[in-house]
Amino acid sequence: MKRFSWFNATALTFGFAFLYIPMIVLVTYSFNESRLVTVWAGFSTKWYGELLRDQAYLDAAWVTLRVAFFSACLATVLGTMAAHVIVRAGRFRGRTLFSGMIYAPLVMPEVITGLSLLLLFIGLGIDRGILTVVLAHTTFAMCYVSVVVSSRLATFDTALEEAARDLGATPFEAFRLVTLPIIAPAVISGWLLAFTLSLDDLVIASFTTGPGATTLPIKVFSAVRLGVSPEINALSTMLIAIVTLGVITTSIITKRTAVRRAREERAADQLA
Questions:
Q1: Rounded to whole angstroms, how far apart are CA atoms 124 and 229?
Q2: What end-to-end distance do the CA atoms of the chain give, in Å?
Q3: Domain ranges within the chain, ordered by starting residue
Q4: Are 84 and 183 in contact (CB under 8 A)?
Q5: Which pLDDT tens digit goes with each residue over 189-217?
Q6: 199 vs 58, 70, 193, CA distance in Å?
Q7: What is d(CA 250, CA 243) in angstroms, rounded to the nearest whole number?
């Protein structure tokens, strides 16, 4: 059966073009000399310098990184705990309700989540700022962490924990010394996912932010409403470069790890 045809090639070409041509245009015009983003006036990198001297963008980027880091850490801890309860606690009264409340933010519209959190903070008398944004991002990011960690715990061999318990380890020690190192890749993946979701969030942050807590997506959205500027193109290009570098680095590390494991397995088979 012929799996690759001209139709598949055409569909693939149009798909990649739809995804990447706008990015190529954006990157190209980030090096435009003119302030008019649609008129090419020559090659220049001055807008990158203007961006790095723009204190408002730098402050927004710093706020975004702080919020993403702390919310990812909190979401990872809470999501891992929730996943452990869901997978390991067995059946208990309220388990269905508990699971539903954990997974609800996955399908809940962000507008509803942001508005409900805003009303909660107002009702509790909490001033909106970095703390409220961190709490809001933790709320919706922990469910993603819980899903990732739960899938790993579901396939985890509990005999390893039982062996540790037989050797005198407490339940916490068995989890810390045996379970956690094995599920560490899933925990790290959950942290990275939570960090990325926090960096990208606009809707929930716009409901829960306050003075002095403007995140980068909010700053960019506010600037775009007045027109696309070359600084925004430069900022977007820098973000694309960072993401591309991260993906390439991760792919190289993953490939090297797989090759090393394959060599170790072959060596073990030869010794056996």
A1: 39
A2: 41
A3: 8-44, 54-232
A4: no
A5: 889 889 989 988 889 998 998 887 888 88
A6: 14, 12, 10
A7: 10
Average pLDDT rounded to a whole number, residues 70-79:
93
Q: Which amino acid would we find at residue 231?
A: E
Nearby residues of 41 by Cβ (< 8 Å), 6 or more positions away: 32, 33, 34
Q: How many CB atoms lie within 10 A of CB 240?
A: 15
- In sequence order, the β-bridge partners of residue 96 are none
Token pair recorded at residue 142: 């922990």
Give the pLDDT mean for 14-40.
83
3-state helix, strand, coil in the chain (%, to 5): 80, 0, 20
In CATH, the number for domain 54-232 is 1.10.3720.10
Amino acid at 56: A
Which pLDDT does position 189 carry in this prediction?
A: 86
